[in-house]
Amino acid sequence: MVDNVYFFGTATTSINDDRDTSILSEFGWNLPPPPPPHSGTSAGLLHSGFDRIITDSDLAGNDTHTTLFARENENTTAEPQPMTMSSSSSDDLPEKSTASGGSSADRQPSDTASKAKKKGQKRIRQPRFAFMTKSEVDHLEDGYRWRKYGQKAVKNSPFPRSYYRCTNSKCTVKKRVERSSEDPTIVITTYEGQHCHHTVGFPRGGLISHEVPFGSQLTPSSSQFYYPGVQFPQGSVGIQESFNVSRESGHSHAPSDPSGRIFTDEGLLGDMVPPGMRKS
DNA sequence: CGGATTTGACCAGCGC
DNA sequence: GCGCTGGTCAAATCCG
Question: Ranges of Basic residues compositional bias (predicted)?
Fold first, then answer.
């Protein structure tokens, strides 16, 4: 597996205006799919089960936004969850929709959500994001650390599907990575769940995890976007600057937030690193 | 040696 | 009920 890459050091995408963030918030997510570093040209695929896809035209004004993403359609929700998550029984793949395969999770002692489910109850799925990127690399770096826990051959596709879990033990986020059978150059990444932490891996292998109290700002109703190491106020134009970090330097360009405050290195550190963890 | 990956087996949902 | 399929587990293996 490729070493984790600090997202700010690899971003090639920028989001430029309020409209962009409104589009993201339209999806009800505070964790927009991170733009992969290996972006290319966009593809026009929309898998069944997803309600829409964001295209370059949706993000007019962006210079290099080439990733398309969509939230899985929730119309098929079996049991809406009381708080913030809604479930979905549809799949993001072209083939028939299934809600199978979740049973194994019930065996996980740590998975209390699954534990709660008993016979006769459908597995409650967290909302999912899929986005497609033209890339030669299967597993796109997104700033988080993932552990691969499975790989399966997919029907009607010559390419296997890989299953990843967030390495943070408290984080239940999963993602699936597969190549499009229609266009092998397109990587389809599906995220399920939302990170409960900031995880920032640095190019040299360092890792900083910034825990966030569950439920405090993880809900779609929250006004926070989540990205590795930084929180984006919804509608903030600061998102753009936060992305505009050169790959070469791996350092921040001292972006400013909407109020004009400059994000110095210390400011970023202050946001990401508990004071006790900092090295001078 | 510890963590990550591989891979075969297992399980449950769904369609017929 | 049976077979197919997707999703997950877990032991074996790999790797830094």
Answer: 115-126
Report the distance from CA of residue A198 to the C1' of nucleotide B12 in Å, as an integer. 34
- A207 nearest nucleotide via C1' and CA: B3
Q: Write out which nucleotides of chain C lie closer than 7 A to a protein Cβ.
A: 4-10
- A2: the nucleotide nearest its CA (via C1') is B4
Residue A153 beta carbon within 7 A of nucleic strand B: no
Q: Are A66 and A134 within 8 A, CB to CB?
A: yes
Q: From residues 173-212 of A, list those within 7 angstroms of strand C by Cβ.
A: 174, 176
Q: b/e map of A167-205 (b: 16 or more CB within 10 Å)?
A: ebeebbbbbbbbbbbeeeebbbbbbbbbbbbbbbbeeee
Q: In this structure, what token pair is assigned to residue A277?
A: 């963890």
Element (H or E) spanning A239, and its range?
A: helix A238-243
CA of A149 to C1' of C10 (A): 10
* Domains located in chain A, CATH noted: 128-192 (2.20.25.80)
Cα distance between residue A139 and residue A43, in whole Å: 18
In this complex, the answer to whether residue A111 has its CB under 7 A from any atom of chain C, a nucleic strand, is yes
- Decide: CB of A142 under 7 A of nucleic strand C: no
Which two structure tokens, joined as six digits, stand for A59? 């993000």
pLDDT digits (tens, 9 = 90+) for A131-151: 777 777 777 777 788 899 999
Which has the higher per-residue pLDDT, A128 or A178?
A178
Q: Which residue type occupies A164?
A: Y
Q: What type of residue is A84? A: T
Q: Is residue A155 pLDDT above 50, yes or no?
A: yes
The reply to whether the predicted model has a pTM over 0.90 is no
